[in-house]
Specification:
about 210 residues; mainly alpha; elongated
C-alpha cells in the first residue's frame, strides 16, 4: 500500500508530481501573459477601446464559465480529465501564435476571437487541475501538494507578466510563438503525468 506520508523531498522526487508542477507552471506562463496582453492589444487597436475591452471581458468570461461546466461534467461522467486537459493545451498551443499574428497585423477581430477561445480553453484546463492533483496525491501529502501546485501557479503568473512586458510591443509574434511551444511541452507533461499515475495505481493494485 502507499506510504502514510511522504517527506517533501520524496514528494518532489515523484515523476507524477514533477509533471504536474511543470504543466501548471508552463500553462500559467501563457495565461499570465495573455490575460494582460490581450486587453492591452485591444485597447491599442480598437476604435472604441473601452467598450471593446469590456465586450471582450464579458464574452470571454461568460463563455469560459460555460465551457468549464460542460467539460467538467464530461470529466466527471467519463473520468477523462487528463485527456480533456491535454486537448485544451494543444488547442491553446495552436491559438497562441494566432494571437501574435493577429495582434501584429492590427486585427481587432482576430485578437478578440482568439482571446475568447483561449480564455475558454485556459479556464477549462484550470477546472481539471484539482482532479489531477487528487489523482497524484498520496495519503498525508494532499495539503503540501496543493500548496506546491499553487506555488507553481504563482510563479507562472509572475513569469507570464514579465514576458508580457518584454514582448508585447516589439516582439509580439516571437512571444506568442514561444508561448505556443511552451504549451506543447505542457501537454507532454500531462501525458507523462497520466502515465505515472497509471503506473502508481498498477503498483498499488499489485501490492493489494
Amino acid at each position: 500500500t502507499p506510504p502514510a506520508s511522504e517527506s517533501l523531498r520524496e514528494l518532489l522526487g515523484r515523476p507524477a508530481v514533477q509533471a504536474l508542477l511543470m504543466m501548471q507552471y508552463l500553462r500559467t506562463c501563457f495565461w499570465g501573459c495573455a490575460s494582460m496582453s490581450i486587453p492591452y492589444l485591444l485597447n491599442n487597436l480598437a476604435v472604441h477601446a473601452k467598450s471593446t475591452v469590456g465586450f471582450y471581458s464579458l464574452g470571454s468570461l461568460s463563455s469560459a464559465m460555460v465551457s468549464m461546466l460542460v467539460l467538467g461534467g464530461l470529466s466527471d461522467a467519463n473520468k477523462n480529465g487528463g485527456t480533456i486537459a491535454r486537448c485544451c493545451l494543444l488547442g491553446l498551443a495552436v491559438l497562441s501564435p494566432c494571437i501574435g499574428v493577429a495582434g501584429r497585423a492590427g486585427s481587432t477581430v482576430g485578437v478578440l476571437v482568439a482571446g475568447w477561445c483561449a480564455t475558454c480553453l485556459a479556464w477549462s484546463v484550470s477546472g481539471q487541475i484539482n482532479p489531477l492533483t487528487r489523482s497524484v496525491a498520496r495519503r498525508g501529502s494532499e495539503g503540501r501538494l496543493t500548496g506546491l501546485v499553487s506555488a507553481a501557479w504563482a510563479a507562472g503568473s509572475l513569469c507570464g507578466a514579465q514576458l508580457h512586458g518584454w514582448g508585447v510591443n516589439s516582439r509580439l509574434r516571437l512571444l506568442y510563438f514561444g508561448l505556443g511551444a511552451l504549451l506543447v511541452v505542457a501537454e507532454r507533461c500531462t501525458t507523462v503525468l497520466l502515465r505515472a499515475v497509471a503506473a502508481d495505481n498498477t503498483a498499488v493494485d499489485n501490492c493489494a
